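Reopening: structure tokens for the thiamine diphosphate complex, inputs below.
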Amino acid sequence: MANKPLPAGSAPSADSLKTQMPARKVVKKTGAGILHDILVEEGVEVIFGYGGGAIMPTFDQFYKSPVRFILTRHEQGAGHMADGYSRATGKVGTAIVTSGPGATNLTTALATAYMDSIPMVAISGQVATAAIGNDAFQEADVVGVTRPVTKHNVLVKDVRDLPRTIREAYFIARTGRPGPVLVDLPKDVQVAALDIEDDGELNLPGYRPRSKGNMRQIRLAAEAINAAERPVLYVGGGVILAEAAEELRQLARQGNIPVTTTLLGMGAIDELSDEKLALHMLGMHGSAYANYAVQGCDLLIAVGARFDDRVTGKLETFAPQARIIHIDVDPSSIAKSVEVDIPVVGDAREVLLEMIPLIRYSERAAWFEQISRWKQRYPFTYQQKDDAIKPQYVIEQLSRLTEGQAIIATGVGQHQMWAAQFYRWRFPRQMITSGGLGTMGYGLPAAIGAAIGCPNRPVIDIDGDGSFLMTANELATAAQYNIPIKVVILNNHFQGMVRQWQELFFEKRYTATEMVNPNFARLAEAYGCKGLELRDPKDVPGVLEEMLNTPGPVVVDAHVAREENVYPMVAVGKSLHEMEMGGLS
Amino acid sequence: MRKHILSILVQNQPGVLAHIAGMFAARGYNIDSLVVGRTEDPDLSHMVIVSIGDDATLEQVRKQLGKIVPVVKVRDLSEQTCVERDLLLIRVHCPPDKRIELRQLAEVFRGNIVDFGPRTVVIQLTGPEEKIEAFVELCRPYGIKQLSRTGVIAMSRDTQPVEAAPLPHKPKGRRRAGAAMVAASMPSDDGPPLPPS
Ligand SMILES: Cc1ncc(C[n+]2csc(CCOP(=O)(O)OP(=O)(O)O)c2C)c(N)n1
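Re-run output (same inputs, fresh job):
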């Protein structure tokens, strides 16, 4: 590999730069050096990455650096870790990968972050500018490939554009409706040396995210809330992203308004301390009482939510009696699928801060009575068994043992829905899950990223056997850096969620959903993690406790009832109140 | 469904055209015509897209365009008075005995004959789309051999008709059914009916 070491002195370390570089002083740096130093300035404390030819000059910058470098086992893992880190901390996650296959491997993670509006920056190496377009070794049109799955992406062809481009990437990623930004960096740009006089300016004439809401609309919304007899707050991931959970809670208490959260909104309210207001999750596998409340409410207040089809069920009959207030930072979210009566475009926190003083308390006795009847009659429930571990029971026990204080990551499938239903959510940024894209394999790497960002909280990945195996190689990452994640595999030896649909809609024809799995506990041990097994319902609390008390990464292989279904369930095309209860009520 | 003329000012950067065209394709919006050109500012390009659709869809198109970072400004010119021009080159079958007739036809539309051949003529015509289309229809009986159009470019007029302050913006989305339609199947007061088992 013709990767000559950089000439001495061309890439000064961050420390020497800090002391050397008063504002506007001209300093000679390489593209890679510029990149490194701006990452430091942007406050990047950790990078998740995987190297290769086209990114080596940039990697070299991290040989001695204040930034921690986590080598993952796959670029998808690096992307999900940056994403999980971002969701858990609120900071912009960063991933660095090589050109071609490195960048294409990253795309699933970018799409995952994009669908859930997660701020992250990805930097991909690219072949030298002169070689671009010639089908060079490990060349791929990465900007073309990732354009539909990033908030913004850019190929840097001139090292003079680099400082501004990197700053813009972080700025765009974290402002407005956040999202992933990719910077494609040709190898010659990384090594080009430049006298930079970096004025730190951005050039984004068309990028003007709105933060303050229109006061007139806010007043209209407040009046509607004060006048409503049966309001419901429908809260999505936007509240978490905007750090607006505290304001949301205040609004709910002050107005005495029940709150239902989407999968990405879990933790916006504390379901234990605000138990009376908590309706838990709504939608396809939401609680019956949340879905009935939405269908019965006279005012639906959507905050940072986007009326996803998994939430609304059949659109024509969604919240049929309600006027709708929709608060969202992205104007294109408003009225995209559902007609809205009072739109408020703005940052959720800013808008709620303006709105709270205008809200009056109201008893709403009849409404809460109705809701508590629904809650009593249709709680989340399951049938306990002596001879098989019920997955819901495992999650209940986890919730109890951790007092709802753990950060929970998940894969995608039944276990994800049960986690949402049976864990009791208490704080924002607690749930780390792929909602919009539904990416199996997200749980383990996202948990690692979250644990690196929040070293003082227990981080548990509640995973499915199918999902876990998609990225299980990242156990090696957890072991190498001793990241103390706990993985609970709800192992039903099936792609459970797909099997459930086959049972319900394809007359139990289980085509290609049965999984013959490895011994996960031994697999974990082979990776250098602790492996535990769980086969008897009696052992559940004990083994979970052992897991929580064991330092370092631990995997629990919990063999659970194989053909358990997730209920309630709103079948595709049905209205929210037309739920299947699976004989549980 | 009606015609919308979108005027889009973009930063002059590689990939912007692909980004915008890709967004239209990915979201299933149609493009009737698309023109990109330089502006008075070397850092900016002007793009004019004609798209046919209902108002709610076009409002989404506009918002989605606004989200693309290098897009500086988006306006729907069909909501105001504007000058719109399309340029047509049309080669029409033209035996010698039809030359006078076709020249007169072109004159009526203020078109020019820009190429004369033994059996065909090429006529150049500018104007709003409706005019171009009317002319094409009149050429059809002679036999159209070739036709090429630039697509519309447009600019708003300096003087807009006096009108009341714009109404508060009320966006549209999928209209939901009236409450009555659903009331029958709604949960009753003491809890919803048991679901079918
Ligand atoms: C990458 C990816 N491929 C396929 C799917 C479709 N899918 C959704 S859920 C599911 C099964 C998940 O199985 P498992 O992880 O074992 O979880 P369980 O449902 O059994 O809890 C599949 C295949 C997906 N969401 N993501």
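Chain A has three domains: 14-196, 215-377, 391-559. The pocket of thiamine diphosphate is lined by residues A 411-415, 438-440, 464-467, 490, 492, 494-498 (CB under 6 Å). Marking as resolved unless the reporter disagrees.
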